[in-house]
Amino acid sequence: MICFRLQQIFSYHEREREGFRAFAVSLSIDSNSTFTPIDHRSDGMDRRLQFAFVLLCLGLLSSTARSDLVVSKAERLVDLNSHIVRVLSKLKVENEGPDDVSEVLLALPDAQAKNLAAIRTFYSDGKLGFVLPTEPIEPKGMPSDVTYYSIALPKKLGKGKTVSLDVLSIFTRSLKPFPEEITQAESQLVVYTDNMYYTSPYPVKYQSLVFRLPGRVESYTKYPKVELVKSELRYGPFEMQPAFSYSPVVVHFENNNPFAVANELVREIEISHWGNVRVTEQYTISHGGASLKNGFSRIEYQARPYMRGASSFRVLIAKLPARAHSVYYRDEIGNISTSHLWGDSQRTQLEIEPRFPIFGGWKTTFTIGYSLPLHDFLFEADGGKRVLNMTFGCPLDEVLVEKHIVKVVLPEGSKDITVATLFPTKQSEDVKYSHLDILGRPVVVLEKDNVVPEHNLYFQVYYKFNNISLLSEPMMLIVGIFLLFVACIVYMHTDLAISKTSSSYLEKLQWEEVQATVQHIKNIFDQYLAAHDKLESSLRDLSRSGDVQSCKAARKAADAQFKELAKELKPLLTFLQSCSQASSILPKIEELVTKEKEMQEKEMAKHTTVVDCFEKKLGGKDIESRIASQQQKLTSLKQEVESLLDSISEI
Amino acid sequence: MATSKVEGSSSLRHAFGGVLSVFILLLIGVVAFSIRLFSVIKYESVIHEFDPYFNYRVTQFLSKNGIYDFWNWFDDRTWYPLGRVIGGTVYPGLTLTAGTMWKLANSLNIPLSVETVCVFTAPIFSAFAAWATYLLTKEVKGTGAGITAAAILAMVPSYISRSVAGSYDNEAVAIFALIFTFYLYIKTLNTGSLFYATLNSLAYFYMVCSWGGYTFIINLIPMHVLLCIVTGRYSSRLYIAYAPLVVLGTLLAALVPVVGFNAVMTSEHFGSFLVFIIIHVVALVYYIKGILTPRLFKVATTLVLTVGIAVCAVVVAILVALVASSPTKGWSGRSLSLLDPTYASKYIPIIASVSEHQPPTWPSYFMDINVLAFLVPAGIVACFLPLSDASSFAVLYLVTSVYFSGVMVRLMLVLAPAACIMSGIALSEAFGVLTRSMKFHITKYFECSHTEAPAKLGESTSTESSAPLENMTKSDTTEKPEVARKEKVARRKQKKEKELTENAHVKPVSAKKEKRPLVLPLEASIVSVFLLIVLGGLYVLHCVWAAAEAYSAPSIVLTSHSHDGLHVFDDFREAYAWLRHNTEVDDKVASWWDYGYQTTAMANRTVIVDNNTWNNTHIATVGTAMSSPEKAAWEIFNSLDVKYVLVVFGGLVGYPSDDINKFLWMVRIGGGVFPHIKEADYLKDGQYRVDAQATHTMLNCLMYKLSYYRFVETDGKGFDRVRRYEIGKKHFKLTHFEEVFTTHHWMVRIYKLKPQKNRIRGKSRKSKLGSKSTSSKSGGMTHKNPWN
């Protein structure tokens, strides 16, 4: 787990270093470090200045409070390219006092501090880099309109020693659109206000300030030591500034980069131990820049999209983890078809286009969902626990999330849940019922306001889970279906009649009995037919072999069988005659009996004739002519008997 | 050849047949469900068209707020400022069904969304409908016919067109309810069981809940009862099948708020009451006939007839007078247009304007029921041999539904089950005869190869043919004089079951001999079977094609195939999403009524009129506004508190069912209420056009302006791809409206009413002059932030 964190830290540190070009600082002392009080009441766009003034007075009064530390060098690089403002301050702090110091204080005017989304201090000790803990504190005896952060140094700073710290602070909503409303064709102009000097509780010996701008600059605070080089605006260097020096600097410039603000993002991470992590992200996205006035004209937008509609954004890019699959992108009224997905082994990139281009003040909502393979994110931890390692932030590029809610839905039956994050979040627990749950799935809810891409760090959820519980739901289904079948079987086999004496019930019983009897009768007749067949085959044998004796024996046997069957048939027939319900089939059966009798007689007669003929050694043709009429009758009788049998069997 | 094994094999065959038919029915259900999923696969799981959006919205409300709030729901999002009492004006069957299904799934912790349930309700109920068809046809003509009919119904295009996944409309469940009600009626008629009679009235209740088409049932069944009485088929079973249905059914129907007292007060239901009286009279006559001697009975008849005719005449006169005193003669407009197909186009443009209320064309018969159209006559013939109560019902159902389908395209849906039943019977009988004769020949052939004389074939068939004929006539004659009812029922049951099993076991190959008289030559039967299979194959192909290509489009998403692949037109949802997120919650949106349901459901904004066209005046107001010049329209809309106007325009991409093509109906409906709108003003020499020759009124009306605002800038000429000519007036400005949103393909354009101008002191002329300069200023004031 420690390994995770370090990895993150490194990657971050590197990223920041890459992002911020090193800049040279010339050593020159600025003596004009006074400030000019301005009446800001008329200037609605920045109230910060006003109270910064107060702050400064206080600061001057108490500037000696901690005089033992001195910032020997402060280089600030303010990146104004996106709507998220990143300020990288490279500090060299020197201990001039006699005592060892273990913490360094950072100061931010409250006006800036309230927009602070993240602050991070990087400290490099030879090769290894660290992120130092940076916590807000409220020191005594210091100006109160300033928010302080304390950096705990990894080792104490001795007398005369220097430490290098890189402080990255990220501000949101610090770019104010001015004018606040623009038409579709206009570019968006924004104003950024800051302190020209590094706000610090310590005197600053040498400092400089660089603004990196995305485009044209409308105006900026004029000052002797300022130069505008391409897209960089440089102030300073200034030397020997007392603590809490202040001088406002205002930059008014064009910024058409997307001001995408997610007013709310709910990320639901649902773990299935069958091998899947399902992520669902619900966005409410709005454009945080200057509002659009005078409506939206499609013809202008289509004719010259980059000129007429420069301030809007059409596309957002989500960087999803590698091997993300089953991606969808929709909103409450259905799928949104304008999206592209491509990916390689490193990452999956989803380019989404909201239903309409987002202009200033416009809003839209949508949902992105995707699945990830479980084994990329879930690991075994010590003590039989499992750990889920996922990124916290939102996968969209350069989007500020005002209210970020991460819900981790653990499988049903998880216990001992703990969460580890690298920054403070509001944690709570919840229960979610899904897919045949009985107890519900424990949900860890993490909430954080003002989430910027820098918060896209890994966090861990530890929990205990028994693999056996995986089978509980399939087993439940199996048992349920099994019980259903059992119930069906029981229902089919039990007699559910309420009154056993009711006439309809008795009728039903009787009817069943009749059916059984009819079945029996049918069997008997089948045997009859079989006997007939035997006789016929004996005749065929006779014509082949001429064995008269065996033929006679066959006749005798058949005769005996006929009698036996007749005996068997008798009680059944009497039963049927006694039954009222059998009245409908009785005539048919009786007909069957008589036909069969007739057939027996004919068969016997034919048999005897043939045998006699054989004994008399008559020719084949002769025999045929003799039995022809009998044969004909016999066939028709047989047909009738069979058809009757058929009709009986179909009752 | 028959051995003792026969007994075992026959019972096994029964079991096997049972399992096989259950399995086949299961597969039919799967086919019915899955053939309707083309829309989900080709497009997405989304609600289709217009009305389903309303049903979807109601279901959402139901699932969120519960049943009691649903009954009391007054919807203020529609028909502004009138509103609509949803609970009292909607057929709740579909909504309650889907709501129950959703609740059931969620109580089992299966997290289905309401939308998913709604999308798949129709396919699920199509499977049910197929099974109900099986039951109904089984009652009419046996298992074989039942299975065939179920298979045919599972994929009949006419039904598919209304029940693809996403088509969440009343018909989806109503067709099932219709068939099931008929099944229970026939079942009651065949068994005379009160149990089934009660179930029948419950099924009827469900049908009343589901669809206004229930009047078809409550007229068809009395017609059948009357037919039975007239043809001398009166029996106590008929009484049991009918009387409880009328009493219980009417009581239950009156419980549905939307029907209420209509169940006894509108003429659609009078027929059933009349027949109810008649059946009682007939029952009385039969009873008296039973207790009186024939001579006495004759006397009584003459006496009653003379008095009765007089009384009847008086009653009928009173009834006619009562009915005639109401303006529509007690019939609702839609029902009237059923009886007189020209009624709607003459008197109610709003009914005539709906394309599904038009009479169908011949190709649509072929499209919707395909080969069934040819099989139906054969089925009718089969129903007459022999004619039973059940088969006479099937014939009557077919005949009436053919008539109704000829009146309204929509009612093709009612014809579909009837056609399927008839075709099922026809196919099953044909297959029965053909396979039987094939089997006959084959068994004969084998037998002859065993023994000697092949010449016996002719004789045996002749003897065979005489015997069963005798048999049949005997059974028919013995049946009639039977007096005791129970015995008769039992006999009927047997006979029926005999038929069933006969049909069921025609197919399984057995060594049994055949006994039917009708035997065709072997070659002919083989060829015919082959042809029938080809015919069935063609039908299946057509159905799959229809399901995949013709009826799957959700109509809110359009696609077109071009050389560079599939192109999706998702403009409607784009516009609705924009409205939903970027206007105030209480803003009113005016559009033609077609888009009302979608706007309330998808954009969640209040609309002025919607697809439930209950108030003609209100619709006419919107129609008038659309056909008025800008200023007058602005005043109308402003008086209705409208903030946005939405028009659908297809001219850029060639989407034909846009507002310009519907515009003549707006003029007609508007003109029907407000006479200053004259249709003739919009027509040039009787022709409807928007090109350079169009009339001045046409080119200055709001609809024209909103549709074509800045359209000419797209290609420089203003070529309309739907009408295929250049538009008449190309360059113009809007004075009272401003464009706020147009979708990607220009299919939906949304305009905002400019706020009222500040009154300028001075003469009117001055203010007119100043209007142009103030317009931009006032535009500046509108920003008053609609989207913050």
From TrEMBL, chain A:
Keyword Oxidoreductase present in the record's keywords: the answer is no
**Keyword Zinc appears in the UniProt entry:** no
Q: What is the membrane topology noted in the UniProt record heading this document?
A: Single-pass type I membrane protein
| Pathway the protein takes part in | Protein modification; protein glycosylation
InterPro entries attached to this UniProt entry: Ribophorin_I (IPR007676)
Show the coiled coil region(s).
620-647
Alphabetically list the UniProt keywords.
Coiled coil, Endoplasmic reticulum, Membrane, Signal, Transmembrane, Transmembrane helix
Q: Where in the cell is it found?
A: Endoplasmic reticulum membrane
GO biological process terms, alphabetically, are:
protein N-linked glycosylation via asparagine
Oligomeric state and interaction partners are given as: Component of the oligosaccharyltransferase (OST) complex.
Record's function text: Subunit of the oligosaccharyl transferase (OST) complex that catalyzes the initial transfer of a defined glycan (Glc(3)Man(9)GlcNAc(2) in eukaryotes) from the lipid carrier dolichol-pyrophosphate to an asparagine residue within an Asn-X-Ser/Thr consensus motif in nascent polypeptide chains, the first step in protein N-glycosylation. N-glycosylation occurs cotranslationally and the complex associates with the Sec61 complex at the channel-forming translocon complex that mediates protein translocation across the endoplasmic reticulum (ER). All subunits are required for a maximal enzyme activity.
Name of this protein: Dolichyl-diphosphooligosaccharide--protein glycosyltransferase subunit 1
What is the source species?
Rhynchospora pubera
TrEMBL record, chain B:
Q: Where is the composition biased (Polar residues)?
A: 459-475
Here the segments flagged for biased composition (Low complexity) are: 770-780
Q: Does the keyword Calcium apply?
A: no
Q: What are the protein's UniProt keywords?
A: Endoplasmic reticulum, Glycoprotein, Glycosyltransferase, Magnesium, Manganese, Membrane, Metal-binding, Transferase, Transmembrane, Transmembrane helix
* Species: Rhynchospora pubera
Ranges for domain Oligosaccharyl transferase STT3 N-terminal come to: 19-422
Annotated region (Disordered) at 456-500, 758-788
Q: How does it assemble?
A: Component of the oligosaccharyltransferase (OST) complex.
Q: How does it sit in the membrane?
A: Multi-pass membrane protein
What this chain does, per the entry, is described as: Catalytic subunit of the oligosaccharyl transferase (OST) complex that catalyzes the initial transfer of a defined glycan (Glc(3)Man(9)GlcNAc(2) in eukaryotes) from the lipid carrier dolichol-pyrophosphate to an asparagine residue within an Asn-X-Ser/Thr consensus motif in nascent polypeptide chains, the first step in protein N-glycosylation. N-glycosylation occurs cotranslationally and the complex associates with the Sec61 complex at the channel-forming translocon complex that mediates protein translocation across the endoplasmic reticulum (ER).
Query: What is the designated name of this protein?
Result: dolichyl-diphosphooligosaccharide--protein glycotransferase
> Which family does the record assign?
Belongs to the STT3 family.
Any one Pfam family match given in the protein's UniProt record, by short name: STT3-PglB_core
Give the CC-aspect GO terms: endoplasmic reticulum membrane
Question: What domain of life?
Answer: Eukaryota
Where the record annotates domain STT3/PglB/AglB core, the positions are 586-645
EC annotation from Swiss-Prot or TrEMBL: 2.4.99.18
Query: Which residue windows are transmembrane per the record?
Result: 15-38, 112-136, 142-160, 172-197, 203-227, 239-264, 270-288, 300-324, 365-385, 392-409, 415-434, 518-541
Q: Where is the composition biased (Basic residues)?
A: 758-769
- Xref: Gene3D superfamilies: 3.40.50.12610
Task: Give the subcellular location.
Answer: Endoplasmic reticulum membrane
What does the record give as its pathway? Answer: Protein modification; protein glycosylation
